[in-house]
């Protein structure tokens, strides 16, 4: 829950930076660089007892950040420069379904038949929301869906790796990888895609806030959750995140919620919430869950 609220702040800050002339690379690069420094400092101060994992695990976690987190966040934040964040987040929330499908195929964790109804509700809501995106922004839909698909894969892999190292250690390595990923993309990007950094102190202050409230704290909360609960349950517990994104978009960005948008978002969130309730009910009640 805490991670969902934190992550929901970032699109509002990012769109504000876009209005000031910055672009996705120009905002995300300092965001993750600052977050990496903060989390690493916290790890060095308070996580000394955790120790460092073996090289293989460190490299794996680093590349999950450099490739997975970088790709997921960059695609998504390029997309919200073209469509409302309240629409983008609803489209992006196809990922819990994808996570369960991955668990079914690769981990032989077959989902129960009871998820059919929430699955239909969720996919219907996503389809309605996709219909609200203007034809000229088809690229934005592709970017958001691609981001969601990559996230479904990386969160499954991340859950395996993060259980084998300390919380602060994992968060530190992950964010260092992500910051490095953004720097590499910026160095090798074309002139049209090159990072455009903010030029005002106000926006730099907002990015610093995004690094703390919208990155450092949510990452720590997310990794703490993944160490305690299965990925499928983690995916469905975060289903309130679209609600926070929509609230932020309406209040701070002036985004308009039409009837179809409300219906699409309601079906998606409602389907995912029902999905969550059914998954929790089907879990072994003897397994402790701590968020």
Structure report:
The chain is an all-alpha fold and 291 residues long. The protein has one domain (2-282). The chain contains twelve helices and no strands. Helix 6 packs antiparallel against helix 12 (259-282). The chain is globular and about 45 Å long.
Topology record:
Layout: H1 2-19, H2 24-46, H3 55-79, H4 85-92, H5 95-107, H6 116-131, H7 138-162, H8 167-188, H9 201-226, H10 231-237, H11 241-253, H12 259-282
Q: Percent of residues in helical segments?
A: over 70%
Integer average pLDDT: 82
**What's the structural domain tally?**
1
Radius of gyration: 19 Å
Helix-strand makeup class: mainly alpha
Query: Unreliable runs, pLDDT <50, ≥5 residues?
Result: 284-291
Question: Tags for this entry?
Answer:
291 residues, mainly alpha, 76% helix, globular, disordered C terminus
The gist of it:
The chain has 291 residues and is mainly alpha-helical.
């Amino acid at each position: 829950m805490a991670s969902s609220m934190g992550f929901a702040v970032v699109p509002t800050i990012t769109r504000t930076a876009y209005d000031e002339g910055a672009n996705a690379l120009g905002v995300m690069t300092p965001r993750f660089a600052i977050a990496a420094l903060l989390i690493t400092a916290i790890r060095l101060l308070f996580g000394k007892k955790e120790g460092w994992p073996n090289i293989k695990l460190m490299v794996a976690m680093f590349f999950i950040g450099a490739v997975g987190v970088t790709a997921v966040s960059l695609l998504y934040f390029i997309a919200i420069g073209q469509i409302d964040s309240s629409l983008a987040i609803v489209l992006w929330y196809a990922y819990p379904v994808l996570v369960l499908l991955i668990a079914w195929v690769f981990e032989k964790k077959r989902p129960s038949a009871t998820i059919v109804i929430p699955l239909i509700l969720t996919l219907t809501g996503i389809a309605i929301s996709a219909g609200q995106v203007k034809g000229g922004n088809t690229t934005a839909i592709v970017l958001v869906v691609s981001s969601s698909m990559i996230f479904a894969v990386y969160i499954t892999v991340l859950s395996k790796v993060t259980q084998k190292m300390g919380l602060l250690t994992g968060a530190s390595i992950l964010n260092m990888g992500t910051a490095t990923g953004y720097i590499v993309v910026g160095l090798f990007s074309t002139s049209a895609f090159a990072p455009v950094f903010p030029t005002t102190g106000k926006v730099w202050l907002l990015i610093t806030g995004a690094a703390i409230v919208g990155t450092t704290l949510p990452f720590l909360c997310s990794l703490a959750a993944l160490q305690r609960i299965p990925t499928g349950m983690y995916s469905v517990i975060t289903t309130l995140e679209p609600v926070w994104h929509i609230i932020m978009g309406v209040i701070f960005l002036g985004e308009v919620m039409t009837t179809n948008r409300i219906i699409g978002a309601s079906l998606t969130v409602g389907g995912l919430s029902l999905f969550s309730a059914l998954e929790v009910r089907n879990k072994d009640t003897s397994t402790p869950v701590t968020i």
